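Lecture notes, continued. The same structure-token format from the folding unit now serves as the input rather than the output. Read the line below as a description of shape only.
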């Protein structure tokens, strides 16, 4: 009799339950000849090269991580047969570039042990940690009344927030010990001002944190396992809060607020239960959430670089059209400093995640990239998200959207177009009078002509730098002496020769402008009556503005 058919514990989770709790894409089921309903009692690292007495070795119900074994390697079938004889519930091997061989698949089909594959980008330590965390927390504590949140994937804080909101009958925010927002429930009703500020800022406002600390509220919250009530006042609705703690360690807190309807009668009991049920989720988030976020961002950047195979890792659907949005955070005329810029991008990332299912984001310096799925033949799926970017508090945002592409391999083109839009908006803002800069958004179609000019200037710039001529002489004189001939010629060209309009833009008298234009002709040969000189002046002065 196979050990799996012998007296085995029915209290452990099934293999299917473990796989459902860890992040999608961590492991792939290659072959499960008897399904994934087998019980699991432990997860261990297994070195197939270690000598074992197979008559006494029993791995009943274990998931064995076959370190050093690839599914395409010659020894893979022997390792699986030995694990099957020992009664292992499953064996995990590394998936290489070739995939499993025929001999291994045939061996798996004849046995009872499931064969799983670890993707190359997942480390053994990470897989071991995820599986063991899932194993520890997979059997619910029914006596604690946590049935309402059973079945959530470990670390699914958004799912947890929505589930708790249904149980409590209010709006839920899950926060870390520093009052930063980890997740919040969907907004079925208009939030009160504090909830709106907290979600938009991705943290409780600092002044509110100080207020709660000085009032003793946080001291009460962190020193009890029970729910703490924050009464309503003339500014904000009533709050209930409970600390999420593992032993003596505080992992975070869950906050419930009325959202236009009264809280449920048993809201306190439900929130108390949620505090216990949230322990594995916050523990998982603290351990793996940051690494998973980095991996997701890496996959998004790989997609933007043209690697379509990264799509599976972040839930991107092949064959679905997408557009790329790029947002750049500023604080005045220069890119925003670290804290301000990252706060603005945090808000945009939150809004992008809530905008549409399947919308994923990644950072790069002061930029946020968003992959926005299109539905129902949309040609501008990011329009609403762009409008949202315009209204982000604190700082200035330039955001642009590239065209929709039908194939993931074309995403780099949509990204390049979106980046060009941001450049166009930035250059527009640089030409505005001081103090006139504000957030600006556009799609590629709206600035296509200006974007095309930028592309042309990019190509012309190396050639222009190697040339000499009247425009070169004029701009060199301006730089050396602080004169404004180039600025005056540019204003005249932009105004299509309307001297009065150009003078108003420069804030000078029209006669002053006429004098400067005559001097530019007499000193440097910049004769604007000559079409060729006008073209060269326009190109050269545009390039000169790039260098300040």
């Amino acid at each position: 009799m196979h050990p799996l058919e012998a007296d085995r514990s029915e209290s452990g989770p099934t293999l299917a339950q473990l796989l459902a709790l860890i992040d999608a894409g961590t492991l792939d089921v290659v072959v499960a000849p008897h399904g994934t309903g087998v019980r699991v009692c432990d997860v261990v690292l297994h070195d197939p090269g270690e000598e074992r007495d197979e008559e006494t070795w029993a791995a009943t119900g274990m998931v064995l991580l076959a370190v050093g074994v690839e599914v395409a390697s010659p020894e893979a079938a022997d390792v699986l047969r030995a694990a099957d004889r020992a009664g292992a519930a499953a064996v995990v091997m590394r998936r290489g570039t070739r995939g499993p061989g025929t001999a291994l698949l045939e061996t798996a089909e004849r046995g009872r042990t499931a064969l799983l594959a670890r993707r190359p980008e997942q480390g053994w330590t990470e897989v071991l940690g995820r599986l063991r965390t899932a194993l520890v927390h997979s059997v619910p504590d029914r006596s604690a009344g946590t049935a309402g949140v059973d079945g959530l994937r470990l670390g699914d804080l958004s799912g947890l927030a929505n589930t708790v909101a249904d149980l409590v009958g209010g709006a839920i925010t899950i926060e870390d010990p520093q009052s930063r927002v980890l997740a919040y429930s969907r907004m079925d009703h208009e939030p009160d001002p504090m909830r709106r500020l907290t979600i938009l800022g991705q943290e409780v406002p600092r002044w509110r944190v100080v207020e709660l600390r000085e009032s003793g509220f946080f001291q009460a919250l962190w020193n009890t396992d029970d729910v703490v009530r924050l009464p309503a006042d003339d500014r904000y609705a009533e709050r209930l809060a409970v600390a999420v703690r593992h032993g003596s360690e505080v992992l975070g807190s869950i906050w419930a607020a009325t959202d236009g309807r009264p809280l449920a009668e048993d809201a306190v009991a439900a929130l108390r239960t949620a505090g216990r049920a949230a322990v594995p989720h916050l523990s998982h988030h603290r351990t793996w959430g940051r690494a998973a976020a980095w991996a997701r961002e890496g996959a998004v950047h790989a997609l933007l670089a043209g690697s379509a195979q990264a799509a599976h890792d972040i839930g991107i659907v092949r064959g679905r059209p997408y557009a790329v949005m790029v947002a750049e955070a500023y604080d005045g005329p220069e890119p925003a400093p670290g804290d301000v810029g990252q706060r603005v991008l945090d808000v945009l990332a939150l809004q992008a995640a809530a905008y549409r299912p399947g919308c994923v984001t990644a950072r790069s310096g002061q930029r946020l990239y968003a992959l926005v799925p299109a539905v129902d033949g949309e040609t501008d799926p990011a329009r609403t998200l762009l409008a949202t970017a315009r209204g982000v508090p604190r700082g200035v945002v330039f955001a642009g959207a590239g065209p929709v592409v039908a194939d993931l391999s074309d995403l780099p083109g949509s990204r390049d177009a979106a980046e060009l839009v941001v450049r166009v908006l930035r250059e527009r803002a640089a030409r505005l009078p001081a103090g006139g800069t504000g957030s600006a958004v556009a799609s590629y179609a709206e600035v296509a002509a200006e974007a095309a000019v930028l592309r042309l200037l990019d190509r012309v710039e190396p050639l222009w730098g190697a040339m000499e001529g009247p425009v070169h002489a004029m701009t060199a004189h301006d730089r050396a002496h602080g004169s404004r001939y180039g600025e005056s010629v540019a204003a005249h060209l932009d105004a299509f020769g309307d001297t009065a309009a150009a003078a108003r833009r420069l804030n000078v008298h029209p006669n002053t402008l006429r004098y400067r234009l005559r001097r530019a002709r007499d000193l440097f040969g910049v004769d604007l009556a000559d079409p060729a000189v006008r073209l060269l002046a326009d190109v050269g002065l545009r390039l000169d503005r790039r260098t300040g």
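Point for the exam: The first helix runs from residue 15 to 21.
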